[in-house]
């Protein structure tokens, strides 16, 4: 009786908890993977209370015991066929990988397979059976109310995703999606969706504005509008989540919540991946976290929590593919942050910094002649002290116009107390929260803090976004951009996703 009551209370508190949370994915393709104890220490230090694992590694599940951290575990794709074909195999899996760890380890969800429809379509016919068998095994152990069962999807199964109101799941998958949604609905579970505005953006060949992908403010006339619903979209993330809501309602499922099981931005890429930068990764993830924790919801469902797991905790250096593939992490394997997120509020998830530093830097790829002109102006009429740029002085190296203009632009910006319009230089300057200091070259505005090799990116505390008048002027100065182009392109992109 007491147990039943306890389970009842647990179930009630889970469903009553409507605040969105931020979690992180923990991939382990890391050559010097930290020990489970170190991983958990990092999670605790960063106030991360929700994680998703790609398997059910025993050592990490043991290390997570008695931490209260809520854990989504996964049935790897290579075990899916076996589980989907045999309820006994499913029951065994639950015994070995779940019952062995609960309640000490707070397992709250099981992702049965990862992007199966798009990566392992031949297992699709057994997918729903696999979820049902896993669920039955949980029911048999009275764990079904505290542990939800679902499966992750690539957002590429959503077609015609803009405008969101016209989105639908690729109809080839209706024979799977309909019973799947029925199962999610009847078991009180949720749709697990991976949302990657980074890929939407790069596949759009620059037609989707970077600002729209990064949650930066858009001028109202540049927002994407769904002409059926008249809802305004200010970022790609919301548009994709709403497309999923609409795709579900197209199949008559209107009450299945969405949890975003992966989203992020790579901080480094090869020469063909020019938008995989520290600044973009920091901006995306900082804005994403703020957006989610604010319980903003989406235009279709304002205020409805869209909890999100960031991809990912560590840079996975062993992953194959382009350079970006190894650089989605928030942390290096040694626990040093790749960059410090622009979040305030000590004690909240991933938030350490409490200051508001911003800097003015030369825009990458800006016309060198314009940079030189701006540099000359700043060091001349602008009255900036440019002596640190002289040969033999701390900021001489690297001796190129981008680096020198960056120093001078920033010095001017700080000298003008960062007043609006002072980081423009005819559009070749941009405000950033990443401290450009390096070695002994300390930029004005960095409070004497130093950029070191190890911590080179971890010195940019700010509570604010990197948006500014000059930024949007840079992106929109041409005035040729039209939201109808975005709409069309988004529709096209959906085909490639
Ligand atoms: C397990 O995680 C859930 C979801 O975050 C939370 O509500 C619950 O309190 C946690 N349980 C324990 C024992 O910490
Ligand atoms: C598996 O299914 C069979 C027949 O459908 C049933 O008799 C058996 O009890 C099930 N086993 C488990 C472990 O659920
Ligand atoms: C829909 O899914 C089928 C089966 O995977 C695939 O062959 C087809 O290309 C998809 N359609 C689109 C438009 O992506
Ligand atoms: C959804 O419901 C409507 C109205 O009840 C019905 O006409 C339609 O066929 C349903 N669609 C699906 C995919 O079940
Ligand atoms: C937070 O949510 C409110 C509405 O609930 C919204 O007006 C505001 O813009 C949101 N802030 C952020 C940073 O998303
Ligand atoms: C963030 O704060 C925690 C707790 O105060 C601390 O242990 C951790 O080292 C800090 N991280 C950074 C990058 O400063
Ligand atoms: C950060 O900025 C806010 C608003 O601009 C200000 O109230 C706060 O004092 C600043 N914090 C620090 C540490 O400078
Ligand atoms: C900054 O770091 C360099 C070494 O990278 C060091 O020589 C210099 O003294 C440091 N400056 C400050 C202000 O800490
Ligand atoms: C990097 O930053 C952390 C936290 O601020 C600090 O403890 C550590 O000493 C720094 N490392 C170096 C090499 O400066
Ligand atoms: C950003 O800073 C401005 C003032 O500089 C402030 O009004 C605004 O609330 C800040 N936004 C966030 C999300 O902190």
From TrEMBL:
Record membrane topology: Lipid-anchor; GPI-anchor
GO molecular function: glucan endo-1,3-beta-D-glucosidase activity
Subcellular location: Cell membrane
Catalysed reactions, as listed in the record: Hydrolysis of (1->3)-beta-D-glucosidic linkages in (1->3)-beta-D-glucans
Span of domain X8: 358-443
Pfam families per UniProt: Glyco_hydro_17, X8
Coiled coil: none
InterPro entries: GH, Glyco_hydro_17, Glyco_hydro_17_plant, X8
Keywords, ordered alphabetically: Cell membrane, Disulfide bond, Glycoprotein, Glycosidase, GPI-anchor, Hydrolase, Lipoprotein, Membrane, Plant defense, Signal
Gene3D superfamilies in the cross-refs: 1.20.58.1040, Glycosidases
Any single biological process term in GO: carbohydrate metabolic process
Signal peptide: 1-16
Keyword Repeat assigned: no
EC number: 3.2.1.39
Chief subcellular location: membrane
Superkingdom as given in the UniProt entry: Eukaryota
Entry GO CC: plasma membrane; plasmodesma; side of membrane
PANTHER family: GLUCAN ENDO-1,3-BETA-GLUCOSIDASE BG1-RELATED-RELATED
Family: Belongs to the glycosyl hydrolase 17 family.
Protein name in UniProt: glucan endo-1,3-beta-D-glucosidase
Annotated organism of origin: Quillaja saponaria (Soap bark tree)
């Amino acid at each position: 009786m007491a147990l039943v009551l306890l389970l009842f209370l647990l179930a009630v508190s889970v469903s009553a908890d409507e605040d969105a949370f931020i979690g992180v994915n923990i991939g382990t393709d890391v050559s010097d993977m930290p020990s489970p104890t170190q991983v958990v220490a990092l999670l605790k230090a960063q106030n991360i209370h929700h994680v998703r694992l790609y398997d059910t590694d025993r050592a990490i599940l043991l290390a997570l015991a008695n931490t209260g951290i809520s854990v989504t575990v996964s049935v790897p794709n290579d075990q899916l066929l076996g589980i989907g074909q045999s309820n006994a195999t499913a029951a065994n899996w639950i015994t070995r990988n779940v019952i062995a760890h609960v309640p000490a380890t707070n397992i709250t969800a099981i992702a049965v397979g990862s992007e199966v429809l798009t990566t392992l379509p031949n297992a699709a016919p057994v997918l729903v059976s696999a979820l049902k068998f896993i669920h039955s095994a949980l029911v048999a152990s009275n764990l079904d109310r505290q542990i939800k069962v679902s499966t992750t999807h690539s957002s590429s199964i959503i077609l015609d995703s803009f405008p969101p109101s016209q989105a639908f799941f690729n109809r080839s998958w209706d024979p799977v999606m309909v019973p799947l949604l029925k199962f999610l609905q009847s078991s009180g579970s949720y749709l697990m969706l991976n949302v990657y505005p980074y890929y939407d953006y790069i596949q759009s060949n620059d037609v989707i504005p970077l600002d729209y992908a990064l949650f930066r403010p858009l001028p109202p006339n540049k927002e994407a509008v769904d002409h059926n619903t008249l809802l305004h979209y200010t970022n790609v993330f919301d548009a994709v989540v709403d497309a999923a809501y609409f795709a579900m309602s197209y199949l008559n499922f209107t009450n299945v919540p969405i949890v975003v099981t992966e989203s992020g931005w790579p901080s480094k890429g090869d020469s063909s991946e020019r938008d995989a930068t520290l600044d973009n990764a920091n901006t995306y993830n900082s804005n994403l976290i703020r957006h989610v924790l604010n319980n903003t919801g989406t235009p279709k469902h304002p205020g409805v929590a869209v909890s999100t797991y960031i991809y990912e905790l560590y840079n996975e250096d062993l992953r194959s593919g382009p350079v970006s593939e190894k650089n989605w992490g928030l942390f290096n394997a040694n626990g040093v942050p790749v960059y410090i997120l622009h979040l305030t509020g000590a004690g909240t998830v991933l938030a350490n910094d409490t200051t508001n530093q911003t800097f003015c830097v030369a825009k990458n790829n800006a016309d060198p002649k314009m940079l030189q002109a701006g540099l000359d102006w700043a060091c001349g009429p602008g009255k900036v002290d440019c002596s640190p740029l002289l040969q033999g002085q701390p900021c001489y190296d690297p001796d190129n116009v981008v680096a020198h203009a960056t120093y001078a632009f920033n010095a001017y910006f700080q000298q003008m107390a960062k007043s609006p319009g002072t980081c423009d230089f005819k559009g070749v300057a941009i405000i950033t929260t990443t401290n450009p200091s390096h070695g002994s070259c300390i930029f004005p505005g960095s409070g004497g803090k130093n950029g070191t090799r190890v911590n080179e990116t971890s010195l940019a505390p700010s509570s604010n976004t990197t948006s500014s008048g000059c930024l949007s002027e840079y992106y929109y100065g041409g005035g040729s951009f039209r939201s109808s182009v975005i709409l069309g392109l988004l529709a096209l992109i959906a085909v490639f996703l």
